[in-house]
Amino acid sequence: MSALPIDVAKVEEEFKECKKAGITFMFFIHADNDQSLHKVVKLLERQYEIVTQLVKMQNAGDIVSKGKQQTMENIIHKTNIKLGGVNYELRLPEAGIAETLGNDTLCIGISLNHPGAINPTLRSTIGSAPTIVGYAANDKKHPFEFVGGFRLQKPSKEERVTVLGEIVQECFERFKVNRGNFPRKLILFRNGCSGTFIFIDVLCRFIFFLYYF
């Protein structure tokens, strides 16, 4: 079976109608050899802010014709995550650990991804690529539900996060909205710190932003 060409205008029209109707989740089943729909849907997902999920025809068919329970469970688990649910949580029998990672604790993980070398000819056309700062924090209602994001900053050989203030403010404010108060404890995981001096520098800068709150 060959996949028909994707009518981008028609797909976007469906997104527009769903947006008007207040629909927040769209589910697609597509041909196994399709190479276009996924890219189009994910672009429109960001444009119209509607969560989407795509499933291959073979997987959908196996559920109906072969009763593949595990395939169905995998799809449902993915849907649950996309809609803000939690599939698993840690059981912490030790009272001390459970208290440390309780409802008043905010965990923030930060990692930097520096751009690679760019051909000089290409650099004159597109300029320098930014450093990407990825982060995740458990600032939703459930302590084991993490939300991720990223920021862009000017590339540098140093491991400093110049957008740290923006990240801290976003995570603290979302924590307060979802939990009703600011966190009492903070666990920071900072990836990519090589050497004691860099670690101390990063720690001092982070404490400075915490003092702001």
Automatic annotation (TrEMBL):
Domain of life: Eukaryota
Protein name: Piwi domain-containing protein
Organism: Panagrolaimus sp. ES5
Taxonomic lineage of the native organism: Eukaryota, Metazoa, Ecdysozoa, Nematoda, Chromadorea
